[in-house]
TrEMBL record:
<dbReference type="InterPro" id="IPR020904">
    <property type="entry name" value="Sc_DH/Rdtase_CS"/>
</dbReference>
<dbReference type="Pfam" id="PF00106">
    <property type="entry name" value="adh_short"/>
</dbReference>
<keyword id="KW-0560">Oxidoreductase</keyword>
<protein>
    <submittedName>
        <fullName>Dehydrogenase</fullName>
    </submittedName>
</protein>
<dbReference type="InterPro" id="IPR036291">
    <property type="entry name" value="NAD(P)-bd_dom_sf"/>
</dbReference>
<dbReference type="GO" id="GO:0016491">
    <property type="term" value="F:oxidoreductase activity"/>
</dbReference>
<dbReference type="GO" id="GO:0016020">
    <property type="term" value="C:membrane"/>
</dbReference>
<comment type="similarity">
    <text>Belongs to the short-chain dehydrogenases/reductases (SDR) family.</text>
</comment>
<dbReference type="InterPro" id="IPR002347">
    <property type="entry name" value="SDR_fam"/>
</dbReference>
Length: 254
């Protein structure tokens, strides 16, 4: 049990299913008061009813005020979980790139902008960013997703280094494959890279709670990602060559 979560006001975006729903369930089990946000009002309502939370459907970029009201005026933990798994190359449409940037990065920026004044005034608050291992590494066949997830990780890192001495805690969750609808939508690239080691959404929630207990910034539900990240930094050309081999293997299956 994470004592700080008992009766805490928690917001989880994109919580109508997948990782978000698992996070909402786990926070509720810890005794938190949970706001369930999702674009799909029916899904948000169903999860909220299941866990005894409050559904606040709508765009994750503009949920803070309504969520704060639903929690009686205070958000203690904000989980920026909503995301788009946008596939494509540099040739993906401008609208695809813009939407990925808006959901995967700017929604986090807007939430932080709305929350930080209150958190800094009282000297505590917790921001959880569901990033993806693609934010540390990359993902074949998904330039908009990979680039914007790097942006999400960079923003979480910046928040942590800027405000940790003022009581703001930040966690970046970076799983590889997770058995969700988003994984199913990755097609043959996901079949090759992600599905062999895919985990359940509940495993991600468990990893986050353990990371919160240990006050860790980087949460790796797939521990092997740490070694990949180190290899990428230490020998970038070797790492890129290995990833290119995956790219070629994927191309041969298409």
């Amino acid at each position: 049990m994470v004592e700080a979560l008992h009766n805490a006001g928690v917001v989880v975006t994109g919580a109508g299913g997948g990782i978000g729903a698992a996070l909402a369930r786990r926070f509720a089990a810890e005794g938190a008061r949970v706001v369930v946000n999702d674009l799909d009002a029916d899904k948000a309502g169903a999860v909220a009813e299941e866990i005894g939370g409050t559904a606040v459907p709508g765009d994750a970029s503009a949920v803070v005020d309504a969520a704060r009201d639903a929690l009686g005026g205070t958000v203690d933990v904000y989980c920026a979980n909503a995301g788009l798994g946008s596939a494509g190359t540099e040739a993906a449409g401008e609208d695809v790139w813009a939407r990925a940037w808006d959901v995967n990065v700017m929604a986090h920026v807007r939430a932080a902008h709305a929350l930080l004044p209150g958190w800094l005034e009282r000297g505590n608050g917790r921001f959880v960013s569901t990033v993806s291992a693609a934010g540390l590494l990359t993902m074949i066949g998904a330039a908009p997703y990979s680039v914007t997830k790097h942006g999400a990780y960079a923003f979480a890192e910046w928040l942590s280094l800027t405000y940790r001495h003022r009581g703001v805690k930040v966690h970046a969750i970076c799983p590889q494959g997770v058995r969700t609808d988003m994984l199913s939508a990755t097609g043959t690239a996901g079949d090759l890279v992600l599905k062999p080691t895919a985990i359940e959404p509940q495993d991600v929630a468990d990893a986050l709670l353990k990371g919160m207990e240990e006050d860790r910034f980087l949460i790796l539900p797939h521990p092997e990602v740490a070694a990949y990240y180190q290899a990428r930094a230490a020998e970038p050309d070797r790492w890129l060559t290995g990833m290119n081999h995956l790219q070629q293997k994927w191309e041969a299956t298409r």
